Amino acid sequence: MPKLLVVDDEAIICHSFRKVFASADVEVITAGTVAEGRHRVAADRPDVVVLDLQLPDGAGTELFSYIRETDPKRPVIFITAHGTTDTAIEAMKRGAFDYLNKPLDLEGMSQLLGRAFEAARVMRDPAALPDDPTTDRILGRTPAIQDMCKQIGRVAGQDVNVLILGESGTGKELVARAIYTHSRRADRPFLAINCAAIPEGLVESELFGHEPGAFTGADRQRVGKFEQCGDGTLLLDEIGDMPTAAQAKMLRLLQEQRFERVGGSQPIATRVRVLASTNQDLDRLIAAGKFRNDLYYRLKVVTIRVPPLRERKDDIPELAHHFLFRYAREAGKDVRGFAPEVLDLFQNYSWPGNVRQLENCVQAAVYQISGRTIHPTDVLSLIDPDTPQAQPPAADGPPAFDLVRTIERMLRDGERDVHARVVALVERELIARTLGQTNGHQAQASDILGINRTTLRRKLRELNITLDKVVTDRAETDDVVS
Ligand SMILES: Nc1ncnc2c1ncn2[C@@H]1O[C@H](COP(=O)(O)OP(=O)(O)OP(=O)(O)O)[C@@H](O)[C@H]1O
Known about the structure:
The protein is α/β, with parallel strands linked by helices. It has helices at 11-21, 34-44, 60-70, 85-93, 106-124, 143-156, 172-181, 203-208, 225-229, 244-256, 282-287, 293-299, 316-331, 340-347, 354-368, 376-379, 403-412, 418-437, 442-449, 453-462, 474-478, and strands at 3-7, 27-31, 48-52, 54-55, 58-59, 76-80, 98-101, 127-128, 136-137, 162-165, 190-194, 233-237, 258-259, 268-269, 273-278, 303-305, 337-338, 373-374. The chain has a five-stranded parallel β-sheet, with helices on both faces.
């Protein structure tokens, strides 16, 4: 369970944090003085620290210095009272994660803490290359993924900026973390910013900070991610969505290793290593005038392409088992494996959402089943039925499953809900094959099956049956699906 240490002498503040995180599976530890805070940091090793600037036996910045010395990566958030913001900004320049103003806004506070826990997780759980037995490994043995890992190994130790390209869910963030983990900056911070998730007008300020009065609402100075990151690594996720003004500033930063805060005129030097990633086609964005060509050329000196899952299907069984064991452990369930038909189904599917979709599919199946084995009926509704590869086998193809073997296995594995699941398997097979015989003609299939068309359509939807050739006459198109 993640641990949060709150160092504040006001009981009401400590109480607010306990209340906000009561239901969030976060252990909240509190301390009222610098000395006690120091003890708690050493004894409890919290993931995130929230620190009041003014404590009875000294300044919060004293404790902050101690934390920076012992673990420079641990996110620290300051609580500032009126008039202490400048000190908080100074702390940000020395690498604090952020600061909260009193009185505390509970919603803003829980969002900020969520980001801090995520940053702590990313830095704590290093992403590793396949031959490294630790933590979040990049799994896969296909040549495509092995080549990618070799490339990561080659560039990680060099201090160059890297552009990571790949479809959504292919593992770009994992690649960025692996580069960081294997770099000389692994003991420095790793921060990520998603350019698509920040309102356009705020991206510049988020990255470079701003001076008071830089724009309406900028009443105080703000330190941006580049200053905050020090000599760490910054991932600019979804860089294709970076607004044009921020792109111009980024270009200058990459050329000169300097930037100015928004509304400021004093150049600030930076040593941050920049990793950028996108799932967009940057060439197309350049052609459309949405992305700067010169910035692209600066970024793409070292480019890593993360292959889509459909181009490395041989990795699917390993990934699927990895997610199965991970989520079975998380759910506290004794799920042991996949029926062979499931792996066939996975191999024949195109996975438009890539590894993330496979992960979500396995996770959902693990959570919803009651037995020890995942069967086709447990995953079919989780795979996009419109993708041709997800279709049931043709009527004249090999049998999709052996009914007797399947029933025997379910009983042997001590599975539950056996009746509903076997009936669904049989129904699916029967309907798919009947429609195969009628060449997709639903009216004829209803006649053969002896069920009305509305029921047939409902079953098609419930059982996720899609058809190669559905003969849809006008009357059928007008039917209402119940
Ligand atoms: N090769 C891999 N081995 C193990 N896990 C992987 C692999 N590739 C991706 N994953 C897992 O798949 C999920 C999605 O990966 P990630 O978030 O890195 O994708 P992404 O390309 O950054 O996605 P997006 O473009 O949507 O942000 C994560 O949980 C990640 O750990």
